[in-house]
């Protein structure tokens, strides 16, 4: 009898529809590195230098930006193993502060933050792919939008088809983008070895083009934070990580210092071949770098950047769709988004929503000017999450914490967060104010859509019909628990 139950249990375990744990340490590192290294390192150097005002200060911003990510990631490692749920910031804040605060983070992320970031990366991909065909001018507006849309649609299809395919693409393109940046770094080091480092000499590097101010430095950090964004994305797929208590912190501690080193060396390489004025005048820093140093092989650079951004789009789609999935599972988004494909076990409705939102942002117009805006919302989310960690320490001091960081680490991060956001609000009140307004528009949506339980019956019938149609169209259902395990647990309780 025991063997029969065990065989039945094993069979049901294999057949049940649930998110699969297929993310090992290598794939976990690839997700973090792949999400961080997207378009940012090829877009943000211009913004960081513009606001920092000097080469030396801009390099300090890049190093310190990585250090701040390390502090934040250590806190997220504690949260990730203490609250082992997919969804990252949203799941932690919802668990600690309740539904309203969690919903506001979810609302701003789904509505603008992740679609805009995906759109920026997709446009960067399209611009670099088309750059060799339009060497003396910018690629046509319609062509870049069309190619960016095709790329997003293709990767959405891949992510809908198989988790394994998506993670393998992430692994391969993460290696590819590291090789691309490695090429830039090696060429830059060769230039420095040949004596071309005038812009890096301290006396020249700290010549300011404008009077430095705390507000401008804060904006430089926001620009750098766009390039570093994605360091917390492994926390969005915790439930799909193999042995998360070990692999989550290991992946964080390996990936973020590596990215910080690569980013700093890449910027040093840029300044070995370009003056600050040339970098600020360039719309495609890596292309300008390649044209100056690689000669007839300059075509390698736009292709390498395109591969890098392609992997970045895949990573953002993979992780942001899990945010929608987690939000729907908590009842903060339509329940259809919490369903997964019967055979592929992928959250197809959530992926389609992310894809659609990104395409809408692509069609609206230029998105590069929204980097400060997106970074502000990012840092706001990080700060609220770290505040949640401090609150949880006080509220539940005896809670089991497989990882427990020194209390000075979240406090240091919070101090940095408060200073950065205050001076960002002072320097860019309109941009940051709009971010706050969009986040607060989620308050009435929460009370109408989530808090209000006794809605008219016709609303429930309408949503049920839409959910049913969506289920049939996407061939999805709610993830299932193992029925045999539940049955054995019930029997055990009955015997007790």
Description of the molecule:
There is one protein chain. With 496 residues, the protein is mainly α. It has helices spanning 2-15, 25-36, 40-52, 55-82, 89-97, 99-130, 141-161, 163-193, 202-205, 214-228, 244-273, 276-281, 285-293, 300-329, 348-364, 371-395, 408-427, 429-440, 442-451, 457-474, 483-495; strands at 340-341, 476-477. The longest helix is centred in the first third of the chain and has 32 residues, at 99-130. The two termini are 21 Å apart.
Strand content: under 5%
Low-pLDDT runs of 5+ residues are 1-16, 482-496
Structural class, please?
mainly alpha
Task: State the assembly state of the protein chains.
Answer: single chain
What is the overall silhouette? globular
Radius of gyration: 23 Å
Order of helices and strands: HHHHHHHHHHHHHHEHHHHHHEH
Number of strands: 2
Tally of alpha and pi helices: 21
Summarize the structure.
The chain is mainly α.
Task: Give the SSE layout.
Blueprint: H1 2-15, H2 25-36, H3 40-52, H4 55-82, H5 89-97, H6 99-130, H7 141-161, H8 163-193, H9 202-205, H10 214-228, H11 244-273, H12 276-281, H13 285-293, H14 300-329, E1 340-341, H15 348-364, H16 371-395, H17 408-427, H18 429-440, H19 442-451, H20 457-474, E2 476-477, H21 483-495
Antiparallel strand pairs: 1-2
Helix pairs in contact: 2-8, 2-11, 2-14, 3-4, 3-10, 4-10, 4-11, 4-16, 4-17, 5-6, 5-16, 6-7, 6-14, 6-15, 6-16, 6-18, 7-14, 7-15, 8-11, 8-14, 10-16, 10-17, 13-14, 14-15, 16-17, 16-18, 17-18
């Amino acid at each position: 009898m025991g063997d029969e139950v065990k065989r039945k249990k094993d069979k049901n375990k294999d057949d049940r529809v649930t998110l699969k744990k297929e993310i090992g340490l290598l794939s976990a590192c690839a997700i973090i590195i792949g999400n961080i290294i997207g378009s940012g390192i090829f877009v943000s150097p211009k913004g960081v230098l513009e606001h920092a005002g000097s080469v030396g200060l801009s390099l300090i911003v890049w190093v310190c930006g990585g250090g701040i990510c390390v502090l934040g990631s250590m806190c997220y490692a504690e949260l990730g193993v203490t609250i082992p749920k997919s969804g990252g910031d949203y799941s932690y804040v919802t668990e600690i502060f309740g539904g309203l605060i969690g919903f506001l983070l979810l609302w701003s992320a789904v509505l603008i933050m992740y679609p805009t970031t995906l759109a920026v990366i997709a446009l960067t991909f399209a611009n670099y792919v088309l750059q060799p065909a339009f060497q003396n001018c910018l690629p046509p507006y319609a062509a870049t939008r069309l190619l960016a849309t095709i790329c997003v649609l293709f990767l959405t299809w891949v992510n809908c088809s198989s988790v394994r395919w998506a993670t393998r693409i992430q692994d391969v393109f993460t290696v590819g983008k590291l090789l691309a940046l490695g090429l830039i770094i090696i060429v830059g080091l060769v230039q420095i070895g040949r004596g071309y480092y005038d812009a890096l000499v301290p006396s020249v590097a700290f010549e300011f083009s404008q009077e430095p101010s705390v507000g401008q430095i804060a904006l430089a950090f926001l620009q750098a934070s766009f390039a570093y964004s994605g360091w917390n994305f492994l926390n969005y797929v915790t439930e799909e990580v193999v042995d998360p208590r070990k692999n989550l912190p290991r992946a964080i501690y390996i990936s973020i210092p590596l990215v910080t080193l690569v980013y700093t060396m890449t910027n040093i390489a840029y300044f070995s071949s370009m003056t600050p004025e040339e970098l600020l005048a360039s719309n495609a820093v890596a292309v300008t770098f390649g044209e100056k140093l690689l000669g007839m092989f300059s075509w390698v650079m736009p292709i390498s950047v395109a591969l890098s951004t392609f992997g970045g789009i895949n990573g953002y789609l993979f992780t942001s769709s899990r945010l929608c999935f987690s939000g729907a599972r908590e009842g903060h988004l339509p329940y259809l988004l919490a369903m997964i494909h019967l055979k592929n076990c992928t959250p197809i409705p959530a992926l389609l929503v992310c894809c659609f939102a990104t395409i809408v942002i692509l069609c609206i117009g230029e998105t590069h000017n929204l980097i400060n805006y997106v970074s502000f919302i990012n840092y706001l989310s990080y700060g609220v999450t770290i505040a949640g960690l401090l609150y949880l320490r006080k509220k539940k001091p005896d809670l089991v914490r497989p990882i427990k960081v020194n209390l000075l680490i979240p406090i240091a991060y919070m101090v940095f967060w408060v200073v950065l956001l205050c001076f960002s609000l002072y320097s860019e009140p309109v941009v940051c104010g709009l971010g706050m307004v969009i986040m607060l528009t989620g308050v009435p949506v929460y009370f109408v859509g989530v808090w209000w339980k006794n809605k008219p019956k016709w609303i429930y019938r309408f949503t049920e019909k839409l959910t049913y149609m969506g289920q049939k169209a996407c061939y999805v259902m709610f993830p299932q628990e193992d029925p045999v395990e539940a049955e054995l647990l019930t029997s055990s309780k009955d015997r007790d």
